[in-house]
Amino acid sequence: MTISRTVFFVSDGTGITAEMLGRTLLSQFPGIAFGRFTLPFVDTPEKARKARAEIDRAAREGARPIVFSTLIEPAEKSVVASSDALFLDLFDRFISPLEAELGVESSHMLGLSHGIGNHGAYQERINAVNFTLAHDDGATTANFDQADVILIGVSRSGKTPTCLYLAMQYGVKAANYPLTPEDFGEPGLPKPLLPFRHKLFGLAIAPERLSQIRNQRRPDSGYASPENCRYETRRAEALYRSEGIRFVDTTTKSVEEIAITVLHEAGLSRPGYP
User: Fold this and answer.
1) DSSP codes of every residue in 77-135
2) pTM for the full model?
3) What is the pLDDT of residues 53-110, one digit of tens each?
């Protein structure tokens, strides 16, 4: 019998931090089915009371919920903490030790981790997103010389979401280029990529998983057939190896994990970014 628990990510901002930390912790319990709900912008006592009511309602309907909180203000925090749930204050667990170590109090200001206080970094992300959208899926190879990284891989291997994550989170100008069966008909890299070999990073994927993903897009097509997926993935990996292109297997990785792998292995870490 599968165990199930309800989980709430509660924040006075977007809830991104609570979700990221909470989901990472929950991933250590693969045998439990978690029903996840995000309650963002809980920034007034009234909203806090509504959040508590929603959490308590879930408690009445099943097992005691789990709450991951990044609430800052004591008034809202105390209301939500009084709900019938396991309340985990993600900030308190780290802020208090940091205050003791640094010898100063934290600012207790809302939304700093995702704000635009650093205008330069914010504008850099905007520029990166615009670049990535303009250079998605091989739409154009113009200005590839301006790319920080160019992801290559077969269709539906995760290129677009990874590029967008790199742009939005780290200000990386990430372009991507699809490898098609036509590209495998000639030896070596596709000609448009030859001048940018040093910027290339490959994405690999298991053919079985690729077939599942493609069948959601084009059911029962040659494009999604196991035979075609085996052919394309085999040829793509052979290309990476023969051309000395670094690559990562995306089969079981999240977009976040793929992006961090690319950042690390391609040496793209950006000082000043989270």
Assistant:
1) HHHHHTSSSEEEETTHHHHHHHHHHHTS-----TTGGGSSSSHHHHHHHHHHHHHHHHT
2) 0.69
3) 999 999 999 999 999 999 989 999 999 999 999 999 988 888 888 888 999 888 766 5
End-of-domain residue from the set 113, 145, 160 = 113
Whether residues 200 and 106 share a domain: the answer is: no
Residue 272 confidence class, pLDDT cut points 50, 70, 90: very low
State whether 244 and 200 are in the same domain.
yes
| Domain enclosing residue 33, as ranges | 3-113
The burial class, CB within 10 Å (0-12 / 13-18 / 19+), for 221 is exposed
Residues 139 and 99 in one domain: no
Which of 94, 113, 132 is a domain's end point?
113
Tokens 């914010």, located at residue = 122
Average pLDDT value over all residues in the chain: 91
Q: For residue range 4-24, what is the model confidence (pLDDT) as tens digits?
A: 999 999 999 888 889 988 988
State whether 80 and 159 are in the same domain: no
Q: What is the CATH number of the domain that holds 166?
A: 3.40.50
Residues 6+ apart with CB under 8 A from 76: 12, 42, 43, 44, 45, 47, 48
Query: Do 154 and 179 touch, CB atoms closer than 8 A?
Result: yes
Q: Are 166 and 262 in contact (CB under 8 A)?
A: yes
Residue 22 forms part of a structural domain = yes
